[in-house]
Structure formats: C-alpha cells, structure tokens
# Entry
Amino acid sequence: MSQKQKQPSTREMKQRLKRAEPYVWMLPSILLMCAMIVVPIITVFRLSMSEISRANRVKGFNGLENFKDVIASPTFWNTLRNTLIWTVAVVGFSTLIGFVLAMVLNQNFRGRKVVRALVIFPWATSLIIQAVIWKYIINADYGALNVLLSKLGLIDHFVNWTATAGAFFAWECWVGIFVTVPFVTFCVLSGLQSIDTTYYEAAAVDGASFWRKLFNITLPLVRPSLTVSTVLNIIYVFNSFPIIWTISKGDPADKTHTLVTYLYKLSFTLGKSGQAAAVSVIGFIILAVCAGIYMMISLRGEEAD
# Structure
C-alpha cells in the first residue's frame, strides 16, 4: 500500500472535523464545569478525610474520623431530622400551593397580569431581605403581626410566636414555602399553557368532570414540568442557607439548624473544618440519592404512559 493511500482523503478529514466540532464547542463548558463543580467536590471529599487545624491548615489524612465525630454528636441527628422535615415540608406544600395557583392563573379573568406580578414578587426578592422582613413581622416585642392583631382586637397582649424551637422552625418552614411557591407556580403554568385546549373540549363533549380532566389530562401532560420543578426545588431547598441563618442562626441551642447552616457554624464559628466537610459530604450523598430516586420514578412513569 502506497503512502498516498494510507493518508486520509480531504473528504474524510472534513467528516472527522465535522464530527469533532460539537465537542470543540462544548469544551469550554466542560472545563468550566470541572473547575467550578468537579474540583470543589473532590476537594471537599479530600478535606472530609483530613485532619484540619483551627487555622485551616491540612495536617494529614485521618480516614473516617471526621465522620465518626459528626455522627457521634446528638446535634447532627437533630439537624438531619430538621433538614428532612424542612425539605419535605417546603417542597411538598410549595408544590401543592403552586399547582393550585398555576391552575387559577391559567384561567382568563380581569387583572390576571397584576396577580401574576404579585405572585412572582416573593421569588424576585432576595432571600435575605425576605427573611429579615419575616423576622421583623414575628418579633414578640414590636412585630407587625402582633401590632396588626392587637389593633384588630384579636389579642389583648403581644404573643411570643417563637417561644419554642419547634415554633421557630415552623415559621422558618413557612417563609421557605412563601418564597418557593412562585417558582413552582410559573414552572407548572408553563406546562399548562402548552396543553392543547382540544383535549379539554373533547373531554367536555364526553361529559368528563373537573376531576377526571385533572387526573386524566392535566396531571399527565404537566408531569414533565412538575418533575423539573420538584427536582430543582429539592436541590435548592435542601441547600438553602439564608432563611435559617438570617432568622435564627440555628438557635435556640442549635435546635433549628439544617445541614447547611450546621456545617457553616462548624467551619466558620467553631473552627472544625474537617467535620464541616464531612457534613457536606453526607448532605451531598443524601441529596444525590433522593434526586436520583425521584428521577428514576418519574422517568418510569413517563415510559409507562
């Protein structure tokens, strides 16, 4: 075989370049993801298995000692329980309320644009600002809620709305729901507006009730939007920091922490960066497993349909 025959032709070279072109365009994004996501994850895993001084100097490998110290702490288990309650409550209630709001906003009525603007306002505002406002509202001494109820004659003395850790945490969950509802609403609304109205017209001709239309038409067709909003919600809410830290900082007695605020306190207040990294790894694993399971269930449901 001659040297000329061994060399690829110009046409083959062009085909190879054409096949490689998408990867060339994707390369900057891949490098950015590696720099901003993969490298930090690997670093956190490494730090979780290292002995770190209070000056944040890595002394060396210590195996699973950080994980053992974290698991041995009662505060961690209370924090883990709070995190699960926080995530389930905020995601669950915001999804339910957001779905109902989306159904309402999908109807034609006077002032719909104004209502949509009002609904999106909590989501467009900074979480820290929202948390500060609600902290002022529920303040026991001069809070707006006590002032309002007092002027309406519903209470004769100011009420301490955060008398217990449970009450404090319940208010934080409410704030989380309040600021998350708009995101779910507009995700579901985008799915509702993509549904062809002829489905509902045909169902109405057949005499289908509202509930049959809801479960046989609306829910199946809006499922992709619900899946996206739920998965993103789980990630955002699980990792949410501003609301808990701004309102309570985990107090009283570290009973209102979630994993994110707890690891922040371990690292930046107590100087236990190794244990903080271990908590971060535990949270990462829990979140990855939960999101993966939900995605698998959703995809199987779509395949079955």
